[in-house]
Design a protein that fits this description.
The chain is mainly α and about 70 residues long. The protein has one helix and no strands. The protein is rod-shaped, with a radius of gyration of 24 Å. The mean pLDDT is about 85.
Length: about 70
């Protein structure tokens, strides 16, 4: 089977030139690599977000003796 330029994978981390999955710009190997990278970035972002939330909650903890207003 001959593939055209439109049917070849551009690669996720560099040139690939394998046949693409129908309806997808990547081949199966590059699709999995892109999903793994996406999952890793999301996990890193969630870890940073959770640390920031924990730090904010610790900073905003109620005082032992509330100030009367």
């Amino acid at each position: 089977m001959t593939t055209t330029d439109e049917d070849t994978c551009p690669g996720h981390n560099g040139p690939c030139s394998r046949a693409t999955i129908p309806g997808d710009p990547y081949c199966a190997r590059c699709r999995i690599a892109s999903q793994r990278d996406r999952d890793r970035v999301i996990q890193q972002w969630e870890a940073v977000r959770n640390a920031a939330v924990a730090a904010a909650k610790a900073q905003e903890a109620p005082e032992a003796t509330p100030v009367p207003f």
